[in-house]
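User: Please predict structures.

Assistant: First:
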Amino acid sequence: MEDKVIYLSPSAQEYNIGYGDFGSEEYRMNRIADLVEKMLKNQGYTVYRNNPNEKLSQIVRESNEINPDIHVALHSNASGDGFNAQGPEIFANRPNTPGDRLANLIYNEIMQIYPDPTKGRGVLHTSSLYEIIRTNAPAVLLEVAFHDNPDDAEWIINNESQIAQAIVNGINSYFSS
């Protein structure tokens, strides 16, 4: 495989606390990113990671300086009410772009392991999420599920390895097609 470069950007939101034993969004998404990074490196990818102590503008600047083939941000969602909103969603910049293709591939893999396929929120396009619109590489922002929903928080906690593998599968599909 030709050397592919991936920039992983797990959440730096340490004060965004999930339900029960979830911990912070930063903590949980960095645990998943650790697994994704290890899997990708074992497959021969070059992987860079954000520094969670940096501001988002610094993270985007670093990604742009590295010029990776793709930029993958990992987050967990919050609705505020904690019990009604549920399911994964992923953001890309515009339809019919490499980022949109990557988003669809990762989302499809995540939905294969998410317990209720009717709760998926889909691939969404944004012109306002800074990390998506300011990153030069094809970029996605995955909201794995809702950390303030008890069922979603428990699912994330109990399925970190499977979530990481689904992300890696989506990335592999992106580069193989």
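Second:
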Amino acid sequence: MLYTAFIFGLISSFHCIGMCGPIAMMLPVERNNPAKKTKQILTYHLGRLTAYGSIGLLFGILGRGLFIAGYQQKLSIVIGVLMILVVIIPEKKLADYNFSKPIFKIISGIKSKLGKQFKNKSYSSLFTIGLLNGFLPCGMVYVALFGAIAMQSASLGIVYMLLFGLGTVPMMSAVVYMNAYLTLPVRNKIQKLIPYVAIIIAVLFILRGLGLGIPYVSPNNMSLFVQAEANCH
């Protein structure tokens, strides 16, 4: 199931363009030095990946706890259903139930620190921009975190989120290099694919939990148990 993280990251990066694209476009990089510019952009991505890996660790630990409690199959099904709900419920409706409100002050602090980093072109500032960017609320990240929980392992939770982050790197880099070509119509056309990809991934998680005996897709109950045990050692 790890491969779904990269695929989802690749497709959802078109959503990221709308949310985080402005941050990428404003990066304090050297416009006239291609080599240094590339290093600076990679430093920014390293910061984002560090953030994703950190939260992947936390949610992987949560999934590990649920595995120990014996909920591994039910968890996979629930995760799949939650992914589908996030996709089919209108974004404006979800905004009415902003799950970020309890940590609004923390998010405000992150945004404030983020703004200050744009005044400096140092690699440490670019890494910090990426790190803080990775902790900002994002619906696509929430869906990826469901997948990290379903991994039922701290290490695999990290890997899942890192693969998701790597999937977003090509498009988020393209924003810096050729934002003039990523027109709104082009982004809208590709963004329409995101719900379908998310639902396909959700269905895979549901099938995995059902234990239908389909190799690699829906292993039987015993195979699923043995695989989860191996992932946790």
